[in-house]
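Here comes my example:
=====
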Amino acid sequence: MLKKFKNISSKLYLILIFIFLYAPIAVLIVFSFNDSKSMATWNGFTLKWYYQLFNNTRILRALYYTIGIAVASSIIATIIGTISAIGIHKSKGFKKKILLNINYIPVLNPDIVTGISLMCLFIVFRSIFDVQFGLVTMLLAHITFNIPYVILSVLPKLKQLPQNLEEAALDLGASPSYALRKVILPQIKPGIISGFLIAFTMSVDDFVISFFTTGSGVTNLSIEIYSMAKRGIKPEINALSTLMFAVVLILLLFMNRKDTIIGGEAIE
């Protein structure tokens, strides 16, 4: 009887957690089809907010900058972070501990501290190299705060590798670069992909660092939504958020379906 009660309570607890997580998203999706601008009343079903979304140049420009900066910064951060993770993994003793602690600092540091420090750095660059705040500074800022997350995603995969894997490849005649490209990187590919996805999500979601490092004419979705907060969030944002959630859900289902098919073929 006690075991049955524990099973029921654990399932109920899990259901409540999922309701708490996804109820706000469900409300957002429902009101993206609401004919009223107010989320307090339901005036009927409509698709006009989606139509207005694709005709709102300001939101589309912010989306363009958001996706562009997220993709570019994630790719660059993934390359730098993967190389850095391999270097940290090969380090030994006290030097490795120092490098790991240095990498932990940006992750544990509050975003506002990182944003203000990067802003101060770019002000120095502006006085020396005439670097203006805008797309370049925001991109550099996103690359900077994404790199530690990539390193933390790749390092566990490197630790799982057999210790003599690279030496075996070198003994069989592979050059160091060939061993890296054909032996090491394929083995740690899941960690690299995870690091890229985390970097992409962090970049799309970021507000504080973007706010302090952007310039006139360059804005992303988080800054654009924050600027709307004083006047009220436009229903087009609900429509955009619904589309973004749908894209992520479809990609997730596709990846899980692909892994299931590959796993089934491997078993056969």
Observations:
- The chain has a mean pLDDT of 87.
- The two ends are 41 Å apart (CA to CA).
- The chain has twelve helices and no strands.
